[in-house]
Every structure is written in structure tokens, then in C-alpha cells.
Amino acid sequence: MQPLIASAPAVGAHALQTGPTDAELFEYVFGGGNTLLALSFVVNIALAGLTILGIVYLGRSLTDPRSKTIATALLLISVVSISSYTGLTSGLTLSVIEMPAGHPAAGATTAGESGVLVMWGRYLTWTFSTPFILIALGLIAGSNWTKILTTCAFTIAMCVTGLAAALTTSSLVLRWWWFVLGSIFFLVIVYVILVDWTAEAERTGTSELFRTLKLLTVVGWFGYPILWMLGVEGIAILDVAITSWGYSILDIITKYIVTFLALFYIVDEPESITGGSDYGATIPGSGVSDD
Length: 291
Hints:
The chain is globular and about 60 Å long. By secondary structure, it is mostly helical. Mean pLDDT is 88; it is low at 4-17. The chain has a single domain (18-266), classed as Rhopdopsin 7-helix transmembrane proteins (Up-down Bundle), CATH 1.20.1070.10. It has 9 helices and 4 strands; from the N terminus they run ααααββββααααα.
């Protein structure tokens, strides 16, 4: 019995080491002539860092609790992004997986291993950052927390099913089924933004700002499933580097540009944004200062 027990950890360790290591993937991205791919990660780390500094600087004079809540949501978008892009850069959230039979990239080789490079860390970015985008948009539109949290739940479901689509190797049909399921969740979010929140922004008085933000967000978000379909995870018309840059450009638009447009508006704390001292209080008049 002793040899069997002693060998169990070794077997587990061997199983965990299948495929390229983080160091090998890092070397593949940064030392293997993949400059375009590497830049798609590094540029976003720099932009996320600059956005964080910009929010801290521009938001230092905010006093209204609702304005502060929006600014905090905007800040957390970039906090998640800089963390997730660092994971991609280090190779921690990259993997090489073999595509199922019938996939256009089946039989491909990456970093000396059978399979294609999958940037599954991007799905972590979207899972944790898009809820904060929706929180900021919902608050700017003047929506209620029930509707905001519902959209957050749908966006998490959308990102998780997208991750499942990217990592499913057992069946090509199941990969596309995960993609369709995620797209349905996505359309629910689009409906809320374009219909419900647009009407609420009209009543709140933020319709001009919200119109710009929703167009950048919705048009940009439609680009993600299109890239997925065209990229190596879908029909493999675009290579990994071009797909990665496509995602990075969309992140720049829907995160950093949207963040600064919203922030420049709320720093003046117009009446359409401010919530007053009672904002967030359970009982009117019981608002607590967070200075």
C-alpha cells in the first residue's frame, strides 16, 4: 500500500503540469516573435493604470453619495482590468487546448503543444468588470437597484457561458450551444439598456450623456461575439493576435473611454446625478456621512 499512497501526489502533480507552464506561455508571448499579441496586453495595463489615477484625481472633490457610488463603480472597472491583464501578461490565465473534431483549428500547434492559445483570463475580466459598467450606467440612468442587479446577474451568466464555449473541447456543437446561450443573456441586457434605461434617463435628465454612453457600450459589446465567431475560438478566420487586439480595442472603448465621459459629467455633480444626503438610507433622514 505504501508505494501506491506515495505515488498519488506525484500523479496529481503530473496531471496539473500537462500543457505549457506559465513560464513557457510567457516566453511564447514575449519571446517568440508575438510582439503584437504582447502589446495587446501591455497597452491595456498602462491604460487601466492611467484611468485609475485619473479617477482618483478627478473624483477627489466629490461630496454627493450617489456621485461617489458612480465614481467607485467606474474605478473598479479599471481595477479589475489591470489585474486581469496582468494575469494574461504573466501567462497565468493563458492555456493551450485542443479543439474538438470539425473545428477549423483542430490539429493546430501552439508553443510546441497540440492545440490553440486560449485567453481565458479575458472572460474573468468581463465577468467581474461588466457588472460595474452596468452599475454605473444604471445609476446614471436613474434606475433602481433591483433592475441594476438583475442586469449584473445576466452579464455574469453571459460571461460564464462564454468561458464555457471557449473551453469546451468535447463537442463542436456544445461549444456553439454555449455561445448561443450567452448571446441570449446578452440580448436581455441590451434590451434593458436600450429600452428601460433610455426611458429612465429621459425622466432623470441624463438622456444626453446616457445616449452617448449606451451607444459606445452596446455597439462595442456587439463586437465581442462577432470577434469570438471570427477568431480562433469560432471559425478561425482571424489569428490569435488580431483577435486579442480586437478585444483590447473594444475594452478601451467600453471601459476607459466610457469611464472618462461619465466621470467628466459627474465631477460637477449636476442635479440630475446627485442623490442628496438621504441617498442609500433605509429610513429618510438617516443618511450617514462617509467622509
